C-alpha cells in the first residue's frame, strides 16, 4: 500500500494559510511591516530559484525522494545544506509580516521541524550513502539551516 506524502511546498502553503488565518483575528503593524514582509518573501523566492538553478545546472534532482546525481556545494549550498527549506521558512516569516501578523512568524519553527523530520534527515542519509566522506566533510563545514 502506497503512503500519501505531503510535499514541502504543500507544507509551506499550509503554514502560510495558518498565518493568514491568524491575521483575520488580529493584525498590527503598518506599511513598513508589510514592506518588510514582501522583502522577505522576495528574498525567499530568489533563494529558492537560485537553488533550483544550481541543482539543475549540476544535473541532479530537486525532488526530495530521488537519488542525487551530484553533491552540490556551491551557490546557496555553500551557505546552507538546505537553502530551499530555509527559504520556505523565510517565506512563512515574510507572509506573516505581509499579513500584519508578525507573531505568526513563529510558525516557521514548527514548519522547520516538520521539514527536518520528514525530509532533511532522509535526504542527508541518502547523500551520505551516495557520497560518503565527501558529504561528511561538506556537512561538517556547512550548517544544516544557516
Account of the 3D structure:
65% of the residues lie in helices and 0% in strands. The relative contact order is 0.19. The chain has helices spanning 8-25, 31-57, 83-98, 108-141. The chain has 146 residues and is mostly helical. Helix 3 (83-98) runs antiparallel to helix 4.
The count of helical stretches stands at 4
Low-confidence stretches: none
Terminal-residue CA separation? 37 Å
The 3D shape can be described as elongated
Derived from helix and strand composition plus strand pairing, the structural class reads mainly alpha
Helix and strand sequence? HHHH
- Based on DSSP secondary structure assignment, what is the total number of beta strands? 0
Kindly summarize this structure in a few lines.
By secondary structure, the chain is mainly alpha-helical.
Which labels suit this protein?
0% strand, elongated, 146 residues, 4 helices, 65% helix, mainly alpha
Helix-strand layout with pairing:
Elements: H1 8-25, H2 31-57, H3 83-98, H4 108-141
Helix pairs in contact: 1-3, 1-4, 2-3, 3-4
